[in-house]
Structures are given as structure tokens and as C-alpha cells.
Backbone:
């Protein structure tokens, strides 16, 4: 694949794609471990155990 | 839905009846699929188990895979999704009618498969064998299931979509796309069609589908079920919700790219093979992230594992998932694949996943679910535990025997003597070496089925103690009108917001799922140099085309590949390695995925016509150790040439260079060729089979691989075709 890409006019796309993928992945990791998020995740991780009680308010009316 | 005593609450009823229906179907089809597997195992221990032609190995294998994947695991998936979706969204399914159509439509598809596959109506594309009318029915039923699911999302009482639901969304979207794209075909008869893709392009599309059917039918929905039922059974929250976010997005993005690892060392363009390998290796990370998340959900509750059979099944299931998803990337390495591909190693791999991951999860889920749906207690935990051990030992025996078998045959294929000659020159010398492992595999499968039968008995006894009133579960929830609006001042992350917007979530999921397909399939289709043409490669003659259809109908591809890999041991044994340009008229492609018998790509002209006649009548006459069923019935069944013109015309429409005259008199041309071949046979004292199916099959076999023989590499545009022997 490297050989094919090297011959292409769009060889630079491979490098761009790697930068984008790594940035998104690292960004998502940082975002998930942001301060103050632990409680929200703790609530959500219990959803199967509390599935007879709504844990979040719904907007009204539902439009999506 | 009814108003309760409090004006701020209302009572809703979950549709439990649909869950029960799917659960019953899971048990019934599971037994059918496993018994089909047992018969297949017996057929490989002794060819005499191929008692009737409809259940001979070639026709039974797709029935087994379809029954286990779509009937057993599929019905289990629906049962689990219908139960958990309603509870996670705090609402009944949007439409009982759509739920019923989903159930009865899916069972109709299974029954149609159970009838058509043994009768030989098949596309031959693995896990997509069903012919076009059934494909249309699958698409309709799946879309209606998706519609019901998304309408239920719309009327939910819980804003936040729990992680299990993300996996369900990805599965619904991906399977719809995969099924429609891979099933594109031109019908030539009520139950016969030709793929719109040809050769390596068809191979790439098929394994893009085949790999991702495993991903989005056997894996992602079950990961969703894991995220719901594991916490339920353990009474513990999910280990890490953060990890589940990474797990989900990484998995759905990476999985779709890995399909080409099923075609390593093949005629597929090298860049596509490398891409498949690279993404397969990357898949290890999210797969193990999911496994760790599932297993660590038991943190603080491991002691329950001693006494709770449900947790035993779940933990073993998730462990098998981890083992399979480690093994998968390893098998995607070209060097490992060179040994494992076409051998029983692959059979071991898929059964570790099928019996271990899916089978055990379904059983654990049924043990958890059925007593609740029947409003009673499980009849016997002891029996459930016995089932677990029978199943676990059964899987171990099955999988280990197939590992030994796979490595044994892979090594035998490659073994040279000091003079550089193949030690095992004929297939007959290798078949007996596998016989003990085939027997052990049968024992392992029998143990697993014994466990399953124990479960059926246990569930039956549980059912006998069911509550008199099996009406739907009622729950009290706040009515929508009284639910407070979201706090506008509360800060929410982007993913949190996304999880509250099913439409946007679905669109992003679709984008993640589609990316791999777009970047792999379109270049392979659009860039001509990916499939260099070979001038001498011509389309099949009308009779050969009929023979090819018979080859497909009998399921020959279940045991014989048509893909010589570029290895010395293969080119010595079979002839020139396969080139992409050789397959441009192959609709569908017939590379195969297993070599129970030898590769047939270059069998054309290797033996005289009379050899093929004798071999089809009784394979043991020429190969005493052969496991192949007798195909004597092909010398009795009439050759139907009434659709030959339509078939040739369909291929001409898709670019095969037949002229109009050839199309219009294709049936006559086929008969002329049949007459010539049959006369040569009768001259040798054999019966006249000019109007029988066997003559077409012999014509096809004798043409195989001749056109591309002698082409030195992918870029050769002219080749010298050797004289026919």
C-alpha cells in the first residue's frame, strides 16, 4: 500500500489521515478524563440496575 | 398505558410476549443448527454419513452456518434486544405489529433457508447463500425491525441512550448496508441469480460482508447485550463507562476495514490485503477493551461466580470473546495465515467464537431471562451448572482437536523432502492423518449438544412452574408531561449531548461504519489496474456455465478452493498461482475458504473426462481415502438448458463478451458441447450422459484454470495456453 500511495498524487493524504486519527483519539481520551466527569459516568454505568427509574429529564416535546 | 393512583405517574407495560417468542425460537433453532453441525462432523469421520444428497456435506454446511448464525444467535439477539431496549428506554416497543412482523418474518426466512439450501438453491457466498427473493425478504424484515427500534427511541422516557443501545444502533445500520451491498445480483430464475460483482471484486465485497457479518451480527449486538445483562446478573455497574465510549467508537470504526484479511496471499491487490492486516491488528485494542470492561464489571462480586451459573456462562463467554479477538489479528498476519488458511485452524477459531462467545452468552441470557419472563424461579441451578461444564469441556475438546488438525494439515501441505519434492504428493496420503481429530471433534460437539439438551430440559421444568398470569410486565414511571426540563445551566459534554440525540448519533455511527467500506471497495472497483486483464481469459461456454451452476448448487466450494496461492508448495501441487485477471467472468467468485479436498483452480485438463465420471460416481474408486460424497445422482438427473440463454444473456449484460447469436442459441450450443463430450465417454464404454447434469459439471471442471495458466504475473496481458491433455 505504501508503494501505491507513494506513486499517487494524493500521497500526502496518508499523513493527514494519521494526524487526524491520532488527534481525535487523544482528544477523546483527554475529554473523557476531564475533571468533574467521574460522577456523570458513575450514574450512567448504573443504568441497567436502575432501569425502572428515569435518571435524566426529557425535553418536551421529543423532536429527535 | 394507564393512569396510576398518582397523577404524576403512569403505568406502562413492556412487550414480554415478543421476547418469549424469540427466546423459544432461539432454543428450537439452536438445537437444529447444532444437530446439523453434528451430522457434518460425522460426515467427515465417514463419508457414508452422507446418506441423502440434500444433506450431503456441501449442501448441509451452509444450512448449519445459517441456522447457527441467523436462527440461533439471531433469535437470541432479538430476544435480548427487545427485552433490554424497552427497559433502558422506559417505554414499550413502538409497534407491536412491527415486532410481530419482525418475529414471523425472521422465522419465515429461516424456514425458507431450511428448504432452499438442501435443495441446492444457493449463491455460494458464505453467510449470504440465500437467493434473491429471500434476500429481499431479509432486507424488508431488517428494515422494519430497525424502524420499530428507532420509533421506540423516539418515544423513550429516558433521554440518555445507554451504551448497549449504541451497539444496537450500529448493528442495525451496518447489517442493512452490508446485506444490501453484498446481495446485489441479477436474477435469472426464481431462485437463481448472478452477483453484480465478479472475481476478486466479488471476493472483496463478499469478505467485507462476511467479516462484518461476524462483526455486526455476532459481535456488536452481543457486546450491547453484554453491557446490559452482565451488570444485571452481577448486580454491579459497568466497570468503566469511559472505556465503553472508546470501545464503541474504536470498534465500529476499525472493524469494517479488516475484511480483506480473509483474502491474504490471494489475487486481491496487495494494498487491500495490507490494509486488512493493519486494521485487524488495531482491532485488538478495542476488542480487549470491551472484554476487560465486561469481566471487570464483576469486580467485588467474583464470589458470585461460584454459585451463579448465569455468571459462569457470561464470564466464560466474554473470555472466549477475548481469546477469539486475540487469535483473529494473529491469523491476519500473512505468515500465520499462510499456514492457517484453508485448514481446520479456521474452523477452531470460528467455533471458539460461535460456541464460546455467542453460544454461551445466549445460554447465560436464557437462564437469566426465562424465569423472569415466566415469573418463576429456575428449576435447577445444578443442571445449569452441569450444562456449563458439558459445554465448556465440549468446546475445549472441539477446538483443541481442530487446532491440532489445522496445524497438521497445514504442515503436511508444506512438507518437502531433501530433494525439494512434496512429501505428501496426493491428497489421499493426508486425509487419514486427520481422521482421529475428526472423531474427537465429533465427541466435543456431542458434549456441547448434551449440555444444550440439559438446558432445554431445565427450561422445560422451569416453564412447568410458570405463573398462571403471564401478562406483560407493568412498571410505574413518571408521565412525560411532569418530567422537568433539562437544566440549562448544567454543563454537558459533547458525547453526553450526542447520546441524547439518536438521529445525530446514528448518522455519526453510519459514517464510522461506512468509512472502511468506502475506502476499500471503491478503489478496487474503480481503478482498472487493480484487476489486470489477461487476453486469453474467455467467458464460460454455455455448457460450462451450467456446470458451474451445478458446482455451486452441490456446494463443492465448501470443500474445494479455487485459489492457488503464490507459495512453492502450492504451485508444485496445483500449478500456477492465481491472478486477478483470471476471475473476471466469475459471478460469483469461488475462491472458497476451506480445503477438505484439493484446490481445483487448475484441475482443467489434469485428468481425462472418464476420470471425472468415475470420480463423481464413486470417489473412493480413484482415491480410496476420499471423504467426498458420491455424486452418482448427477448421472441420473436431467440437464435443464431452458434457462441457459437467460443466464448467458445476464452475464452479457454485465460485460461478458458473448455476442447476440451466442445468447440466443446458448441452449443449443450447450447441447452440442454436451454431445461431443458424451460421445467421447460412450466411446470408452461409459453410459451416455449427454442430457444429464454430470456432463455439464465435467465440462466445467475440464475448463477450470486453463485460460490463465502460463500468465507469468499480474501485468501480463498475453499468455500461452498449453495444449489440452
Residues:
Amino acid at each position: 500500500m505504501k508503494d501505491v500511495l507513494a506513486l499517487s498524487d494524493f500521497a500526502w493524504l496518508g499523513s493527514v489521515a494519521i494526524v487526524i486519527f491520532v488527534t481525535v483519539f487523544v482528544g477523546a481520551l483527554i475529554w473523557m478524563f476531564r475533571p468533574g466527569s467521574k460522577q456523570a459516568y458513575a450514574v450512567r454505568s448504573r443504568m441497567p440496575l436502575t432501569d425502572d427509574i428515569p435518571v435524566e429529564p426529557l425535553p418536551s416535546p421529543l423532536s429527535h | 398505558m394507564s393512569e396510576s393512583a398518582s397523577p404524576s405517574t403512569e403505568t406502562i407495560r413492556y412487550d414480554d410476549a415478543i421476547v418469549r417468542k424469540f427466546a423459544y425460537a432461539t432454543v428450537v433453532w439452536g438445537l437444529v443448527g447444532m444437530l446439523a453441525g453434528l451430522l457434518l462432523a460425522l460426515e467427515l469421520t465417514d463419508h457414508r454419513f452422507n446418506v441423502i444428497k440434500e444433506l450431503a456435506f456441501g449442501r448441509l454446511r451452509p444450512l448449519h452456518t445459517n441456522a447457527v448464525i441467523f436462527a440461533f444467535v439471531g433469535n437470541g439477539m432479538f430476544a435480548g434486544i427487545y427485552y433490554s431496549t424497552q427497559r433502558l428506554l422506559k417505554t414499550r416497543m413502538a409497534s407491536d405489529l412491527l415486532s410481530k412482523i419482525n418475529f414471523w418474518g425472521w422465522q419465515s426466512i429461516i424456514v425458507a433457508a431450511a428448504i432452499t439450501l438442501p435443495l441446492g438453491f444457493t449463491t455460494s457466498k458464505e453467510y449470504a447463500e440465500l437467493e434473491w427473493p429471500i434476500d429481499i425478504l431479509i432486507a424488508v424484515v431488517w428494515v422494519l425491525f430497525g424502524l420499530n427500534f428507532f420509533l421506540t427511541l423516539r418515544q423513550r422516557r429516558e433521554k440518555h441512550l445507554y451504551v448497549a443501545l449504541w451497539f444496537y444502533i450500529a448493528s442495525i445500520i451496518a447489517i442493512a448496508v452490508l446485506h444490501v451491498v453484498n446481495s446485489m445480483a441479477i436474477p435469472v430464475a426464481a431462485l437463481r441469480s448472478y452477483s453484480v460483482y465478479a472475481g476478486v471484486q466479488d471476493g472483496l465485497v463478499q469478505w467485507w460482508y462476511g467479516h462484518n457479518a461476524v462483526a455486526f451480527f455476532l459481535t456488536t449486538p452481543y457486546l450491547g447485550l453484554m453491557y446490559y445483562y452482565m451488570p444485571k446478573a452481577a448486580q454491579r455497574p459497568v466497570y468503566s463507562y469511559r472505556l465503553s465510549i472508546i470501545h464503541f467508537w474504536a470498534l465500529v470504526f476499525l472493524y469494517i476495514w479488516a475484511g480483506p484479511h480473509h483474502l491474504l496471499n490471494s489475487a486481491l491487490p496487495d494494498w487491500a490485503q495490507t490494509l486488512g492486516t493493519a486494521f485487524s491488528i488495531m482491532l485488538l485494542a478495542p476488542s480487549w477493551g470491551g472484554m476487560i470492561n465486561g469481566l471487570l464489571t464483576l469486580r467485588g462480586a467474583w464470589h458470585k461466580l461460584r454459585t451463579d451459573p448465569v455468571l459462569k456462562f457470561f464470564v466464560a463467554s466474554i473470555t472466549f470473546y477475548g481469546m477469539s479477538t486475540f487469535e483473529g489479528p494473529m491469523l491476519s498476519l500473512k505468515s500465520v495465515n499462510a499456514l492457517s488458511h484453508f485448514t481446520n485452524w479456521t474452523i477452531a477459531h470460528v467455533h471458539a467464537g460461535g460456541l464460546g462467545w455467542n453460544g454461551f452468552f445466549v445460554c447465560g441470557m436464557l437462564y437469566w431471562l426465562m424465569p423472569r419472563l415466566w415469573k418463576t424461579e429456575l428449576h435447577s441451578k445444578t443442571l445449569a451448572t452441569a450444562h456449563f461444564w458439558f459445554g465448556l469441556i465440549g468446546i475445549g475438546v472441539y477446538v483443541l482437536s481442530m487446532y491440532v488438525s489445522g496445524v497438521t494439515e497445514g504442515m503436511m501441505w508444506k512438507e518437502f523432502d531433501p530433494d525439494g519434492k512434496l512429501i505428501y504428493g496426493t491428497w489421499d496420503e493426508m486425509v487419514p492423518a486427520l481422521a482421529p481429530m475428526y472423531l474427537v471433534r465429533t465427541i466435543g460437539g456431542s458434549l456441547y449438544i448434551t449440555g444444550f439438551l440439559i438446558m432445554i430440559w431445565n427450561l422445560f421444568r422451569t416453564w412447568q412452574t410458570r405463573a398462571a398470569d403471564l401478562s406483560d410486565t407493568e412498571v410505574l414511571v413518571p408521565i412525560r408531561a411532569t418530567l422537568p426540563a433539562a437544566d440549562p445551566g448544567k454543563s454537558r459534554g459533547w458525547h453526553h449531548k450526542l447520546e441524547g440525540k439518536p438521529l445525530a448519533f446514528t448518522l455519526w455511527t453510519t459514517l464510522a461504519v461506512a468509512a472502511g467500506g468506502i475506502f476499500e471497495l471503491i478503489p478496487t472497483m474503480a481503478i482498472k489496474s487493480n484487476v489486470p486483464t489477461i487476453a486469453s481469459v474467455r467467458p464460460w461456454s454455455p455448457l460450462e456455465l451450467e456446470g458451474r451452476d451445478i458446482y455451486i448448487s452441490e456446494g463443492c466450494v465448501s470443500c474445494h478452493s479455487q485459489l492457488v496461492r503464490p507459495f512453492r508448495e502450492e504451485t508444485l501441487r496445483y500449478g500456477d498461482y492465481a491472478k486477478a485477471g483470471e476471475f473476471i467472468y466469475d459471478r460469483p467468485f469461488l475462491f472458497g475458504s476451506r480445503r477438505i479436498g484439493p484446490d481445483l483452480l487448475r484441475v482443467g485438463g489434469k485428468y481425462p473426462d472418464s476420470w471425472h465420471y468415475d470420480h463423481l460416481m464413486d470417489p473412493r474408486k480413484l482415491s480410496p481415502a476420499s471423504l467426498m460424497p458420491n455424486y452418482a445422482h448427477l448421472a441420473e438427473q436431467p440437464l435443464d438448458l431452458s434457462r441457459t440463454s437467460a443466464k448467458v444473456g445476464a452475464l452479457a449484460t454485465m460485460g461478458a463478451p458473448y455476442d447476440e447469436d451466442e445468447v440466443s442459441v446458448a441452449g443449443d450450443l450447450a447441447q452440442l458441447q454436451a454431445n461431443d463430450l458424451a460421445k467421447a465417454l460412450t466411446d470408452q464404454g461409459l453410459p451416455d450422459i449427454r442430457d444429464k447434469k454430470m456432463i455439464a459439471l465435467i465440462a466445467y471442471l475440464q475448463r477450470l484454470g486453463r485460460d490463465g495458466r502460463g500468465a507469468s504475473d499480474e501485468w501480463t496481458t498475453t499468455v500461452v495456453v498449453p495444449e489440452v491433455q
